[in-house]
Amino acid sequence: MFDLTPFRKNELDRLRKDLFGDMFERMNQLFDPKEGATSFLDSFKLDVKDQESQYVIEAEMPGIQKENIHVRYDKDYLVLSVDQREEKEEDKDYVYRERRVTSMQRSLYLPNVKEDGIKAKLADGVLHLTIPKADDGSTTRTIEIEG
Hints:
The protein is of the alpha+beta class and 147 residues long. It has helices at residues 9-31, 39-42; strands at residues 46-50, 54-60, 69-74, 77-84, 102-109, 119-123, 126-132.
């Protein structure tokens, strides 16, 4: 015979553990300094404005040196990457150390761009990019329907 109760207590406990247990474990890892930051925390924040004739992007990059930032435009994608390596020190007096190798990358789909007009400037830990839009030559046209 079968039971008319849709879930038994042990099945509910298992489901709760499967659904929420993993989430809480990941949240603990996310904020645990011993575990290190996850890719969510390692990524830099950015704002993208779509202005009439250009895109304007501001990316937060505090503590990143200009020579460690790489910007390229490849097949309608703007790729921002950071590769900063910390020099190894022989000083073993550290009690706690958070600074380490940092490697991050973001890709943005930006079609119709004048590649040779892209400008970048790093000031006060913020990378400012101006990306002029290309004139794609398209115009709006009304099509008459014959009938």
